[in-house]
Amino acid sequence: MHPRSSSYDVVVVGGGHNGLVSAAYLARAGLSVLLLERLGHTGGAAVSTEPFAGRPVRLSRYSYLVSLMPEQLMADLDLDVRLASRTTASYTPWTRGERTGGLLVERPEGEATRASFRELTGGDDEYAAWQRFYGEVGRLAEVVAPTLMRPLPLAREVRDLVDERIWDDVVERPLGRAIRSRFSDDTVRGVVATDALIGTFASLDDPSLVQNRCFLYHLVGNGTGEWRVPVGGMGAVTTALATAAAGAGAEIVTGAGVSAITPGPDGAEVTWHDGEREHAVTGRRVLSGVAPWVLRILLGEGEDTASKPVGSQLKINLLLDRLPGLRSGADPAVAFAGTLHLAEDYSLLEQAYAAAAGGAVPDPLPGEVYCHSLTDPSILGDRAGSAHTLTYFGLHTPAGLFDADPSAREVATRRALASLDAVLTEPLADCVATDAEGRPCIEVKVPQDVERDLAMPGGHIFHGDLEWPWAPNRSRLETPAQQWGVQTAHDAVLLCGAGARRGGAVSGLGGHNAAQAVLAEL
User: Fold this and answer.
1) How many domains does the chain contain in total?
2) For the chain, does the N or the C end have fewer beta carbons within 10 angstroms?
3) What angle do CA 277, 288, 469 make, to 5 degrees?
4) Residue where a domain stops, chosen among 457, 476, 502
C-alpha cells in the first residue's frame, strides 16, 4: 500500500500501541495522518501470536499485562477492549526450615491474606506494615494518576499533595532503604521490591533511583496500579487501536522501513523504503514512536554506542497440558492466577543483581510467572479447559550477559525453569505440551531477541530508563511539546512512544500526550 498524498499534517513513525493512539486521536480531530510501520503488522510489543506449530493458542508474546492505560483514554477512543481483573494479586512460595507455605495476596485483600502473613511471620505486625505502606502508596497514586493525561505538573506541585514520608521513601531516597525500614521479613521485602525491577537492572540501593521510578510506574495506573489481563490477548488492545485509527481516517502503511527524518522550516521530511523502492513524505509534525536512541540515528546524528539502552529481562512463554501442583499445598488455580514469585526474597534479589553485575547468570534466578488462561481461557482456542499458558519473566538478566557468553541463554532458561521446579510437586517438563512436530511448547526471548524483532535498542522494553512522571521544578515548559513531555531538539519532531517522559509499559500515554501537544500547536 502506498500513501495517498505526499504531505500530511502528521506523520507517525512506528506503529506500536503509542503510535496508534496518536494516530487515532489526531485523525479524530480532523488532521491528515500517515502512520508508517517497519513490520508487516502494527502493534509493536503489544501483540498476540501463535508461536507453537499446530496449537491455536494466542500468547501475548512480549508485553503481557495492562496496568497504566487510563480508562479515560480507552473511553475517548471507544476501544472495544475488556481488561479482566485477576482474583489473586500474588502468591509467593516459601520454605523456612522444615516449614513450607505460600504468601497469598488476594485481590481485594481479605482474611486469607491476613492469615497468610501470619503463617509466614508468626504475627500481624508485618501485614499491618504492608497495609500502611500500600495505603500511602495508594494515596500517592491517586494524586499522580489524574495528572498523566494533563500537561506536566512540577515536582513541587505533586509533592505538596502527598504525605512527606511516602514522598521521601519513593521519590527522594533509594527504595531499598524504605523497604528495609518498613518490613522485617525477607520474603515480604522481596515481594515489595519486585515491582521496582521489572525490565530494570539495578540494585535497590542504586543512587540513580531508576528502581524507584520503575516502582512508581508499576503502582500508579488508574490510581490503583492493578495489573489486568486483556481478554483475547494483548493483540486485542492494539487491534482495537488500529481499528480506531483507521476508522477515523488515519492511513496506516506497513512494511515501511523509515531510514531518515529531516527537519525543515515548516515541518519534516520522512524517507522510507517498502522493500522495492524509496519514498518520501512531509509532515507539519512528525511523531516518533521509536526509541529516542534510534530517533537520533534517523535524524542523522549517528550511532552513540555509549548511550545505547540495555534491556534486562528473560521472557519464557509456555503451553502446558495441565497446571502442576505446588509443594505448599496451595490450589494451583489460586496460586497461578496472579503473579507467582520465584526466588524473589529481598536478599536473593540483591544477590542476583551482584552476580549479574559481575557477569554471571544468577543462581537462583529470580523471576515471576503468570497464567493468563486462568483469567482469560479464550486465548486457548480449542484447548480451553484442557490446557494452560504460562509466562515467565526473569529479573537481573541484562543484555550484556548474553553478549558475553553464547551459552548464557541456555543457562538462564534452565535456571528459570529450575526455580519453578523447586516449588512444584512434579517436574514442569512433565506438564509441558508438545507442538505438531513433537517439540516442547517453550519459547524464550532475551533482550537481543527483542532488539532484533522490534528494533528496541538493547532490547530495553521502556526504550531507556524511565523518568519521573512530572517535570523538574526548574523545567522550561514554554511550548506545548515541553508542557506535555514529548519534546526533542527539533520543533517539528515529537516523541510519542515509551521514550516520552510519561512513556513505558502499555499505557498509550506517550501517544496521547504527543497528540495533545500537536493539537495545541497546529
Assistant:
1) 2
2) N
3) 165
4) 457
* Cα–Cα distance measured from residue 174 to residue 163, given in angstroms and rounded to the nearest whole number: 17
Task: CATH number of the domain at 135, please.
Answer: 3.90.660
pLDDT at 272: 97
Q: What is the pLDDT of residues 194-247, one digit of tens each?
A: 999 999 999 999 999 999 999 999 999 888 888 899 999 999 999 999 999 999
Q: Are 165 and 181 in contact (CB under 8 A)?
A: no
332 and 414 within one domain: yes
| Chain segment 320-335, per-residue pLDDT in tens | 999 999 999 999 999 9
> Is residue 363 domain-shared with residue 475, that is, in the same domain?
no
What does the alpha-carbon distance between residue 131 and residue 119 come to, in Å, rounded to a whole number?
A: 17
- What residues does 25 pair with on adjacent strands? none
C-alpha cell of residue 26: 489526531
Angle between helices 125-144 and 175-182 (to 10 degrees): 140
Same domain, 382 and 281: no
Reduced to 3 states (helix: H, G, I; strand: E, B; else coil), residue 120 is helix
Structural domain that includes position 188: 83-226+309-457
The Cβ-side half-sphere exposure at 132, using a 13 Å CA radius, reads 15
| Same structural domain, 263 and 160 | no
Residues 128 and 222 in one domain: yes
**Quick one: cell of 136?**
500511602
Is pLDDT at 9 greater than 80 in this prediction? yes
3-state per-residue secondary structure call for 455-466: CCHHHCCCCCCC
Q: What are phi and psi of 407, to 5 degrees?
A: -85, -5
Look at residues 421, 441, 457 and tell me which one is the last residue of a structural domain. 457
β-pairing, 267-273 vs 278-288, is antiparallel
Under 8 Å between Cβ of 416 and 390: no
DSSP secondary structure letters along 22-83: HHHHHHHTT--EEEE-SSSSSBTTS-EE--STT----EE-S---BSSS-HHHHHHTT----E
Shared domain for 74 and 192, answered yes or no, is no
In this structure, the answer to whether residues 201 and 151 fall within a common structural domain is yes
Q: Which three cell numbers stand for residue 144?
A: 499522580
pTM of the model: 0.97
**Quick check: 288 and 493 in contact, CB under 8 A?**
yes
Contact 211/129 with Cβ under 8 angstroms? Answer: no
